[in-house]
Each structure stands twice: as C-alpha cells, then as structure tokens.
C-alpha cells in the first residue's frame, strides 16, 4: 500500500498553489524524503508537464511523459 503524504494546512482551500511551477516545487519538497535515487517522474501533458519538470529538476530525477487519450 502507498504512503499518503499530506499537509493539513492545505485542507479546505480554494487555491493551494500559485501556479503549476509552484505546485511542482511544493510537491518536490513533500516527496524529497520518501523516494529512492532510481525514481522516475511521469507527467501527463499538457498541465502535468510543468509540474513534473519542477519535481524532476528539484530532485535530480529523470522526467518522462505518459501519453493518454480520453475514451
């Protein structure tokens, strides 16, 4: 089972992040201690790419894309 990472200060807010770049930086900090050196960041275009890029850069990880389509 996966571990839940939560910041209780962010509950019940309309806006949690200033933008996608801010989201990536904040998420990277939350993930920093719980990942291994061989982790991979997967991002879904287009909105997830800026978030994923910030996470990958902040943590020194590789970034790849997951291409999906609606069915």
Keywords:
alpha+beta, two-stranded parallel ribbon, 71 residues
Oligomeric state of the chains in view: single chain
Mean residue pLDDT: 90
- C-alpha termini separation: 28 Å
Q: Using only CA atoms, what is the Rg?
A: 13 Å
Query: What is the tally of beta strands?
Result: 2
Strand order within the widest beta sheet: 1-2
Instruction: Label the structural class.
Output: alpha+beta
**Strand content range:** 5-15%
Question: What would your notes on this structure say?
Answer:
- With 71 residues, the chain is an alpha+beta fold.
- It is 34% helix and 11% strand.
- The chain has 2 helices and 2 strands; from the N terminus they run αβαβ.
- The model has no long low-confidence stretch (mean pLDDT 90).
Summarize the structure.
The chain has 71 residues and is an alpha+beta fold.
Helices and strands, with pairings:
Elements: H1 20-31, E1 40-43, H2 48-59, E2 62-65
Parallel strand pairs: 1-2
